[in-house]
Write a structure and sequence with these properties.
Blueprint lengths: L1 H18 L12 H9 L6 E4 L2 E4 L2 E4 L9 E5 L5 E4 L3 E4 L4 E4 L1 E4 L10 E4 L5 E3 L2 E3 L8 E6 L6 E3 L2 E3 L4 E5 L3 H6 L6 E3 L2 E5 L10 E3 L14 E3 L2 E5 L4 E5 L5 E3 L2 E3 L4 E4 L6 E3 L2 E3 L5 E3 L5 E3 L2 E3 L6 E4 L1 E2 L15 E3 L2 E3 L6 E5 L4 E3 L13 E6 L5 E3 L2 E4 L5 E3 L6 E3 L2 E4 L5
Parallel strand pairs: 1-4, 2-5, 3-6, 4-7, 5-8, 6-9, 7-10, 8-11, 9-12, 10-13, 11-14, 12-15, 13-16, 14-17, 15-18, 16-19, 17-20, 18-21, 19-22, 20-23, 21-24, 22-25, 23-26, 24-27, 25-28, 26-29, 27-30, 28-32, 29-33, 30-34, 32-37, 33-38, 34-39, 37-40, 38-41
Antiparallel strand pairs: 31-36, 35-36
Keywords: Lyase, Signal
Enzyme class: lyase
EC number: 4.2.2.19
Length: 411
């Protein structure tokens, strides 16, 4: 009987050993060599835990992959306890990798350019982390999704005081060959106190950065339930230059910019709220759906449909706005026009570099193609009577059943 009990205990112990999640290292790693070694040895379900402390100039690469049920995790031993600074940067190329509970303070990456980059990663994620006063080189971002990355997520993070871009989905020449990053989800983040750059290149979120043919690639990005507070980097808070993306339920407060579809087609902008911003929504391209948005006290126009240029393949083209649905939006007290159909008419640009490689385009460009075949209905606009809906020589649009209220007549 005793031998039977011993055999039973031994069998249970062996089963427990097999089923117990493998852990790479105990809590409290505090040097970069040990951290990278633990990452290199990681198996699905492992956690690499960093001790509380400040870590300068750490560069980590996570190439190993977890699974959907058992991701590989890199985290601080307590939220906010592990603080990176200097040129610290993390590159994730593995699938199902979770980075969480870290702080990046005044990081200025050198060789790796972005603070965190998901490169060809699938279903990897950064969450519950803080990026404060990042100093990113021009043309890069604090967090980048690049290569053939798919279904990556950035959520519940805070981006404060970023120089240049906070978050970027990279669509480049390699994307034309191999396909772009797809399925990125950006949700429940706070972006705030972004200082003005005084030039292009400081969008808070940038999805793609080029015109035709890059803008025709479908990236299926979801940007939802984020908060943008005083994001004043440049005129475009969010800049979308690809197709088939969704922007919904975001809140913009006191920002000196707009949500801009700069290139691309068939994106959805729904149920966002803009309060005290320079503008609301600006459209170029076709097939967009803009519904249920609220824009209050804009210092510019609420919703703008831009004139397009004749050369849609120009590197700086404004695509004609066509076949869009703009419905059930509410615009209150815009200092400019509530809903502007045909902004930018006959605006001209000239740049000597456009006539050179790699562009090989005309050095001049003019916006002459009016918005057309758009359905603009059931919107409620309150403001100055002559600025509620304005159409600048753009007659080929369906405008009906809108509620237009002269604010001077409101008691």
């Amino acid at each position: 009987m005793t031998n039977s009990i011993c055999r039973l205990v031994l069998s249970v112990s062996l089963i427990a050993l097999v089923l117990r999640p493998h852990t790479t290292a105990a809590a409290g790693i505090d040097n970069v060599v040990a951290a990278q070694a633990s990452i290199n040895a990681a198996q699905p379900g492992d956690e690499i835990v960093l001790a509380a402390g400040q870590y300068d100039d750490w560069e980590l690469t996570i190439e190993k992959s977890g699974t959907a049920e058992s991701p590989i995790t890199l985290r601080g031993e307590a939220p906010g306890a592990a603080v990176f600074s200097g040129s610290s940067a993390i590159v994730v190329t593995g699938d199902h990798v979770l980075v969480r509970d870290l702080v990046f303070n005044a990081c200025e990456p050198k060789s790796r350019r972005s603070v965190i980059r998901f490169d060809d990663a699938e279903a990897s994620r950064v969450t519950a982390s803080v990026f404060r006063d990042s100093r990113i080189k021009s043309g890069s971002a604090v967090v980048e999704i690049t290569g053939k990355a798919s279904d990556c997520r950035v959520d519940h993070c805070r981006f404060i005081g970023t120089q240049y871009l906070s978050l970027r989905v990279v669509v480049d020449d390699a994307s034309l060959r191999d396909g772009p990053p797809v399925g990125t989800r950006i949700d429940h983040n706070i972006f705030r106190e972004i200082p003005p750059l005084g030039a292009n290149g400081a969008e808070t979120i940038q999805i793609g950065s080029r015109a035709y043919p890059h803008c025709e690639l479908e990236t299926f990005v979801m940007v939802e339930e984020n908060v943008f507070i005083r994001c004043n980097g440049e005129a475009e808070i969010i800049s979308d230059k690809t197709s088939e993306n969704t922007f919904r339920k975001n809140l913009f407060l006191d920002c000196r910019g707009e949500l801009v579809i700069r290139h691309g087609n068939r994106s959805t902008i729904a149920d966002n709220r803009f309060v005290g911003c320079r503008g609301g929504i600006r459209l170029s391209g076709g097939g967009h759906t803009v519904t249920g948005n609220t824009i209050i006290n804009s210092s510019g126009s609420g919703i703008q449909l831009y004139y397009g240029v004749e050369d849609s393949k120009h590197p700086a083209a404004y695509l004609p706005v066509t076949n869009c649905v703009i419905q059930t939006n509410t615009i209150i007290n815009a200092s400019g026009v509530g809903l502007m159909i045909g902004a930018n008419r006959n605006q001209s640009w000239h740049s000597a570099r456009w006539a050179k490689k790699p562009y090989n385009a005309s050095a001049s460009m003019s916006a002459t193609i009016a918005p057309a075949k758009n359905k603009i209905s059931e919107n409620t606009i309150i403001g100055k009577s002559d600025r509620l809906i304005v159409s600048d020589e753009a007659p080929d649009n369906e405008i009906r059943d809108n509620v237009l209220i002269d604010s001077a007549r409101i008691p």
